[in-house]
Amino acid sequence: MNLRITFLFIFLSIALRLDAGMVRVHSVIDGQTLVVERGGIASTVQLAGLTITDDDGARALMEWTLVNAWVMLDEQPGGGHFLYRSPDALFVNRELVMRGFARATLPSIEPTQHVVVTFLGTTNSAADFAAKRRSDALLDGATKTKSRAAAGNGSGAKRSARPKPSRSRQPRKP
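Now predict its structure.
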């Protein structure tokens, strides 16, 4: 049992030490390049999957949201990094695209398109309206027939009278 706990502790220590990529942003060079502090050493980081269209806007956004903030870097195989701000996990690469400061060159950065649809009911065509009128007329005819049958068949039979609920009368005050 102790061997399992020791192995788990060593494994977790190694896994956490594999540089999960949490670094602090020191400064912004341009709309696609940051200077981060890794273990006390400043290094340059390039964002992946972007083509910057508005460098001034992208630089201003990154300075405003990232300088002195903790971020997680996810290194990409083709070079560059995906950047996630901590603690809210803002995907900075996608945010630049959504705000119009960059164009995505990787499909994983493209923002998802959500179409909002509000159901306002159905439209009534002329055929639907005519069918409804016919069904209403048939229902009215059936209702009239049932009420005639309930009234009697003309033989003078009376309906049984139900006792009316009694109302208690209170004496009048003189």
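The mean pLDDT is 79.
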